[in-house]
Design a protein that fits this description.
Helices cover 34% and strands 29% of the residues. The protein contains five helices and eight strands. 22% of the residues are buried.
Length: 152
Amino acid sequence: MASWHQRPGTKGGGPWTNTLTDRQLQEEEDRKERGFSGEKFTKLSPTWRQQMATYNIALVEGTLKIGFGSPAQNDQIVRDVETRLAEMVTASELVGGDVLRVNGPASLPVAMVIAHAVCHLYGAVACFDPKLAKYVVAISHNPSYTIGDLID
């Protein structure tokens, strides 16, 4: 929890500043590394953050950034993922296109829900492989991409 304290050298009612604990600063750094920080991600509504605490999904610069949130079992996580992806389609966040890059950890059931939701919106879907440091095309309806192609 952040603590609030009066800025040194001020008197009376302010100005006040918010100081984060070392743990909170580390968590924020981790979120930045995974792509779940910054302007686009923080624009998500607080309601969504509460409802979708089990899994994080955001479209950032054409890449679907994904990652686990609060601990939960796959039966709940897949429901949350399906709901979030449907919301993204309805809000025109996921509109389709040539290729969708997906980056982040997912269990097999979660990966299947994501694949089902996006495979007919995009000509190809590619997942990031950290060992190759490239995206591997895993689904393709687009003749420009074949299964197994490596893309940046």
